[in-house]
Amino acid sequence: MKYKFANHVSNMNISAIREIFKVLGKPGMISFAGGAPAPEVLPLDIINKLNSIIIEKYGTTVLQYNVTEGFVPLRQALSNYLNTTRGFDLSANEVFVSTGAQNAIDAVSRLFIDVGDKIIVESPTFLASIKTFRVSSPAILSVSVDEEGINLIELETLLKQNKIKFLYTIPNFQNPSGYTMSLDRRQQLVELAKRYELLIIEDDPYYELRYYGSNLPTLRSLLPDQVIYIGSLSKIFAPGMRLGYYIAPDQIAEKITSVRQGIDVHANIYAQALASEYISGGYLETQLQLIRNLYRVRLELMLSELNQKLSNKEIKISQPLGGMFVWLSNISQDTVELYNQAIKQNVAFVPGKYFFVNESPNNHSLRLNFTNVNEENIIKGIDILSKILK
Amino acid sequence: MKYKFANHVSNMNISAIREIFKVLGKPGMISFAGGAPAPEVLPLDIINKLNSIIIEKYGTTVLQYNVTEGFVPLRQALSNYLNTTRGFDLSANEVFVSTGAQNAIDAVSRLFIDVGDKIIVESPTFLASIKTFRVSSPAILSVSVDEEGINLIELETLLKQNKIKFLYTIPNFQNPSGYTMSLDRRQQLVELAKRYELLIIEDDPYYELRYYGSNLPTLRSLLPDQVIYIGSLSKIFAPGMRLGYYIAPDQIAEKITSVRQGIDVHANIYAQALASEYISGGYLETQLQLIRNLYRVRLELMLSELNQKLSNKEIKISQPLGGMFVWLSNISQDTVELYNQAIKQNVAFVPGKYFFVNESPNNHSLRLNFTNVNEENIIKGIDILSKILK
């Protein structure tokens, strides 16, 4: 039988990026391709201890259905935590728990996008978010990013010429570029957003992963009525638990809940109970020290190796102050071809083209993850890579 | 600022059903409204034991990202289990784990439905599935069900006149009616499906909850190329864990995976590890005895109370052989008004209208859950209900 799929399915790029991830399991492979936490800082021992605490404290509630908005103790723990770290002023019922940040991005897409509606993303941007948006079939426009963040001249040109449903941005340690939006750029973006009544999706999974300097104000704190703020517990707790959260203007939050009743019903309650104890019991704070210390060392090492070994080349190396990725651009070779050479020598990365939405993607950039590769392999892998980079 | 939501949002019925569920928390309320397992048969002690087993066995893998298709040990456990119980002949890589059955229903909707595409559901049908479908904006047609299952004459009329993307059916102990599709009806449905190239979504969350007689062949076993089979661990493990599974023709399964990479990435890995031990370690089998014994007693009690107390009324009482619900129809009163009377006396149920998709829904039916109400309250609640039923 011939199956009659929806129209957007013909645009689904099933094989390309999956082929890349398939080779990563190969023994001996040094993979800079992923975006996963280092297993050394996954809180297995803490969870082993928290299991009996939550079972004792909450009984069968942790196994039962619950409300879509989230498990109340986690909403309490998150609101306290976000008020302290982000300077928010939230009550527990203004924070919502999602099945990973992706679930929140998806629910927002479905709440706003009719087929062909226009949205704007950064160029480059997080490839999984592109995938999420495409399921709702919008026209995706893009605006370039530089070391200071999103290009506001390009953005205003698009806003003048188009009706835009929302802008999707990752202001801190952007995936894949590692760039962070400057305070000045944030303030100007907010002014533009007010002038053009632009709704902003602020995706902020790396807020905690700052290794130098101080955090900048979130877009949400500058313009709460027009920003949907999305956070993740994947980098600071455990990605396998699929927990994220979001904050949105009341009128939007209520409708996200309604959409999610048809999508995920609610996030895993057992995991939410664990996360609530992890945050309110002070484990997160201790764990964040370990995480930051480990990742800072790896970032420093990767940058010093890259700066040293690529010093006489034209290649541009991003200099992130946090996050999980370093971005190489202005590479003369086609990075898909480069990838094929690299994996023969057991080194993997993600070619830049997957992070662009436009028709002629940038084939002269690539993304390197530094959080999930140990020091020895960073030295070895960058050495191999630098030799095949012209 | 005025937010510009997608078109389908104006059709979202946010308040109605939520208002009903809000009153359920009221102290002293006897609620026949839910669809949750009894807390007595949620495997809290077993999970308390399995926690250390999976941490020992799998280490940080249970906290890390994994593939969308599912955690391999759970896919193995499920394929063995389904082969034994359903007579399937599956390898582990033909079973896929979803974030609850709802996530699978949603992914299938998004894979097949373009705005305005026609799908067919049973009338009445599961209200949360209606909600899921509506997010993808199909035209939803419906076909009545009786004690033998879906009405095939109505179905064929629709198939003759319309292009249909899929039929959604719950053949066993249907939610809300409790009806089970007969073998004869299953075989005829399969013949129709072949003739009209109809894709079938077989939602089978209650397969294990049979209290009398033997299970009938699944539609999937009769027509594997045209059936997407969706199962749930919510009734036999724990709904708070948000785990379901699906089996589909290869070409479809591959595309569901791709859609899910933009929706949920993958189901909670920690929960999948627990479920794999729960099934392969033989705990499920023991637990199912407890579950069936408890629910059978409650079903028998509810039916005998209803049959006795409503004996001289015209009301039709469904006589399910399994599942979680009894359906009352042919009620002379409007059941929304009846609901308002009932909650004043601390008894709740779901008025029938929420289970219909057509414009003039049936207001003369209601759904009663029997799994999550203890014996004393079943007697008390049915007594109160029978007095306000004319």
Beta-strand portion of chain A reads: 5-15%
Q: How much is the radius of gyration of chain A in Å?
A: 21 Å
Gross morphology of chain A:
globular
Order of helices and strands of chain A: HEHHEHEHEEHEHEHEEHHHEEHEEEH
- Extract low-pLDDT stretches of chain A: none
Return the average pLDDT of chain A rounded to an integer. 95
Multimeric organization: homodimer
DSSP, total strands of chain A: 14
Strand order of the largest sheet of chain A: 2-9-8-7-6-3-4-5
Query: Which structural class fits the helix and strand makeup of chain A?
Result: alpha/beta
Helix content of chain A: 40-55%
**Greatest interface and its participating residue counts:** A-B, 79 and 79 residues
Biggest sheet of chain A: strands, sense, closure?
A: 8 strands, mixed
The number of helices of chain A is 13
Distance between the termini of chain A: 50 Å
Question: If you had to describe this structure to a student in words, what would you say it looks like?
Answer:
The structure is a homodimer of 390-residue chains. With 390 residues, chain A is of the alpha/beta class. Helices cover 42% and strands 14% of the residues of chain A. Chain A contains 13 helices and 14 strands. Chain A has helices at residues 15-22, 44-58, 72-86, 100-112, 127-135, 152-161, 183-195, 219-222, 250-261, 269-280, 283-309, 335-344, 375-388, and strands spanning 30-31, 96-98, 118-123, 139-146, 149-150, 164-169, 200-203, 227-232, 244-247, 316-317, 325-329, 347-348, 350-351, 366-369. In chain A, helix 2 (44-58) crosses helix 10, helix 4 (100-112) packs parallel to helix 5 (127-135) and helix 4 packs across helix 9. Chain A is globular and about 60 Å long. The model of chain A has no long low-confidence stretch (mean pLDDT 95). Chains A and B meet through helix 2, helix 4, helix 5, helix 9 and helix 10 of A and helix 2, helix 4, helix 5, helix 9 and helix 10 of B.
